[in-house]
Amino acid sequence: MNEDRSVPRAAVCIIGAGPRGTSVLERIAANAPEILGDREFAIHLVDPFPPGSGRTWRTTQSELLWMNSAAEQVTMFPGTSVRCAGPARPGPTTGRWLRESGRGPLHDDRYASRPAQGRYLQEFFHLVRARLPPNLRLHVHRATAVDVRHPGAAHQCVVLDGGLAVPAPQLVLAQGHTDVETDRPHGLVRIGPARADEAELGRIPDGAPVVVRGLGLVFVDCLLLLTEGRGGRFARSRHDGRLHYRPSGREPLLYAGSRRGVPPYPKPAHDLTAPAPPPRHLTAAACRALLRRPGFDFDRDVWPLALQELCRAYYHELFTAHPERTRMDRAAFAAQYEHFAWHDDRAAKLVRAAVPDPDDHFDPDHLTDPLAGLRRVGPLALQQRVRAHLRDSVRRRRDPRHSAHVAVVRALGTVGGVLGELYNGGELPPAAAAAALRRFSVGAFLSSGPPPLRMEQLIALSEAGVVTFTGPGTTVTAEAGHAGVAHDVDDHTEVAHDVDARAGEARTAAAHAAAARAVFRASSPRVRASYTARILLDARLPDPDLARTADPLLRRLLTAGHISEETAPDASGRPRATGAVRVRDGHPVDAAGRAQGTWYLAGPEQFPHADTDAGFFRRNDEIARAVLRHAAGGGPRRVSRGS
Ligand SMILES: Cc1cc2nc3c(=O)[nH]c(=O)nc-3n(C[C@H](O)[C@H](O)[C@H](O)COP(=O)(O)OP(=O)(O)OC[C@H]3O[C@@H](n4cnc5c(N)ncnc54)[C@H](O)[C@@H]3O)c2cc1C
């Protein structure tokens, strides 16, 4: 191991040069003059991928992969709207930068491709580097960090895969969503759970049947790579304006399902017409009062208030922006509606009287589980039902007449913000925090879907027979060549061990024959059909699983006890490992329960929106200032829990 002695000891090593690590770098540069004056300070930025874009936004990936955030909304430049101690450094959004530089078109009117976003991020990095104060030295290492020597000591070093040991008494861990090792059942092909990977998808032969688990954003990425990416083309009919798919003949047959059986709702193509009302029922003060009550239960006490806020926001927008579709004065409606719980019969009666068209009524149950009423349908009826739902959701998300649905998405964000504030302040007990996370998975379903054009493409692929929906509550089993014997396939699949062990014990002809007959089977209890294939595509990001992380540094730090795994109570109240790194005041906690005071965990987050007080920037600013103050001689610093 050769130690790099060319840099001063006052140093920080940022591991991961994606959006998070690059933004922390920007905040260090912005805050350094105030905190360090002209003292020398070294910043090591470590990533095998180019700085700025990192791995997720690398510019060499397919242009078929798009961002799921509107380009005009997101920015890497913290403007004056961010309430942080460091200075504002305003700059363009992705959308403005692409327009002015001509470095990439917007798709579906609003969305940049992922490589185009990567070009913006790399430009951001170059700008930050060009503006570094002269006493700051930046060292970019295109390498993977694999170990930390002398953790916590002044002579702490980060070891890179090439053998270089980088001296840095402080560390920022900004590694993003890391991959997780999964079992590979013998005789079958399993791809994922992981982000869409062109090389991995290349293992799927043309025309092969594939069972797909997951209908979210990773599914959409895979879908495009396996269809347009294999030469198929989408074309809009001049006759009816609908999108059609012309197959190339190389696409596989995808049997796709998920818990709800439908993909998340597409992103709205329009905005609110009227300003949203501030929350009234689910405020931080109301939650604190509930939390003090004996026997507090999140699902019973808080979640109904969240639904109440969604209903209020919906009708507020409907009455304000589309009064011609209502029969009552907005204030009169609101005054009565506030008195009823959202599921109260009197609320339903009031809505029927005030809003004549049932299509305009808001039904949270239907919205969050659109196929709830489905009972043992045939496969063709299911395809029609799902396509009808997709068409309806595209219509509502594209047509400004349905801006009330955008109000629901915004209200979810507001309600999530209230609960996030309590969580970050440590005010939610663990069971309530776990329940809140579970409930708010519905938030992703309602608000974090793909651009609407992606849903139109999915409808076209379904009509062309490339995609077959398998239904709500789809489970996938691996059948190891024994008729009638099926096991659940989970991330830690038992059948995989079983099959591996058997094949390892005796490589008999029978075992080979069993493996040759093995299949994955997708079925839904509410559909009269099941589908088999020898390939399973787990189309989702893996859940965090520190014990199985593929990241060599995290694996090493965990084994050595320098970091540990977080626990949270399960439904029965028993502590369970969550798979995430345990953190206290923004610092990883070691196996003995001590916070690593000079290490900062900066996990992945959505891109910050311009002109908002984005937590992303505030936390990066806090980390940067803590790093600089420590370097200036102030000792380790706390940063907020949300980092
Ligand atoms: C496929 C995908 C699409 C997404 N789309 C959107 C979107 O449209 N809009 C949105 O708001 N959010 C999106 N997100 C959320 C995403 O988390 C953020 O956009 C963002 O990329 C997170 O930034 P990050 O820097 O934390 O992580 P990353 O961008 O993942 O960067 C982490 C970096 O750390 C490096 N690294 C990891 N381990 C090591 C190591 N041991 N040594 C050295 N380097 C290491 C990696 O190579 C990587 O470059 C998406 C996420 C994914 C995975």
From TrEMBL:
Please name the Pfam families in this protein's record.
NAD_binding_9
Occurrences of domain FAD-dependent urate hydroxylase HpyO/Asp monooxygenase CreE-like FAD/NAD(P)-binding (ranges): 14-177
Region feature (Disordered): 86-111
Q: Where is the composition biased (Basic and acidic residues)?
A: 97-111
The UniProt entry, under InterPro entries, shows: FAD/NAD-bd_sf, HpyO/CreE_NAD-binding, L-asp_N-monooxygenase_NS-form
Q: Which domain of life is it from?
A: Bacteria
Q: Which organism is it from?
A: Streptomyces typhae
Instruction: From the Swiss-Prot or TrEMBL record, give the protein name.
Output: Adenylate cyclase
